[in-house]
UniProtKB/TrEMBL annotation:
It is found in: Endoplasmic reticulum membrane; Membrane. This is TMD11 protein. The chain crosses the membrane at residues 142-161. Signal peptide: none annotated. Pfam families: EMP24_GP25L (PF01105). It is a single-pass type I membrane protein. Residues 93-120 form a coiled coil. Keywords: Coiled coil, Endoplasmic reticulum, Membrane, Signal, Transmembrane, Transmembrane helix. It comes from the Eukaryota. Belongs to the EMP24/GP25L family. Residues 1-84 form the GOLD domain.
């Protein structure tokens, strides 16, 4: 709803365009007595509420002024415009909000994709590091195995040479 409060001017014999310093306390209650809205507004304002119950709702306007003498001797006029149901105040604002929501969803999707790519890169980095360590260990083991094979081959060669020399000396061929 929209409202506007005007105060009677005794000197001009007309209502003033606005009532400066005057505020309105707006209270909205459901048919069951539950308070949906209770808020202090200025001399002119817009209020809205959402009710989940159908039926007659009570809208109460109270002045916040404590100057009873000023109010008691003057008149107040309240203009009230109430809209019932779902109304969009500005269609361009709704469209802009929908575009922002759409961009927001796309942005969240892009952020999720970036996080996924980042996790994938971390996983690949860990796999590469493990593979490098395994490769280095394998190369080290192959080097030691080659050294051991070389020592065994040299030992067998030296043993064969010594055995053949001893054989030839025993048979008196040398």
């Amino acid at each position: 709803g929209n409202y506007k409060v005007q105060r009677w001017d005794i000197h001009k014999h007309d209502f003033l365009e606005s009532a400066p310093g005057l505020g309105m306390y707006v209270t909205v209650s459901t048919p069951s007595g539950e308070v949906l809205l209770s808020k202090l507004y200025g001399p002119q304002g817009t209020f809205s509420f959402t009710s989940h119950l159908s039926g007659e709702h009570i809208i109460c306007f109270q002045s916040n002024s404590t100057r009873l003498l000023a109010i008691a001797g003057s008149k107040l006029r309240i203009h009230l415009d109430i809209r019932v149901g779902e109304h969009f105040f500005d269609e361009s604002a709704v469209q802009a909000k929908e575009k922002v929501d759409e961009v927001n969803v796309r942005l969240e999707h892009l952020i999720e994709q970036i996080q996924h790519v980042s996790k994938e890169q971390d996983y690949e980095r860990e796999r590469e590091e493990k593979f490098r360590k395994i490769s280095e260990e394998t190369n080290s083991n192959i080097l030691w195995w080659a050294i051991v094979q070389t020592l065994i081959l040299m030992s067998v060669g030296i043993w064969q040479i010594k055995s053949l020399r001893d054989f030839f000396i025993a048979k008196k061929l040398v």
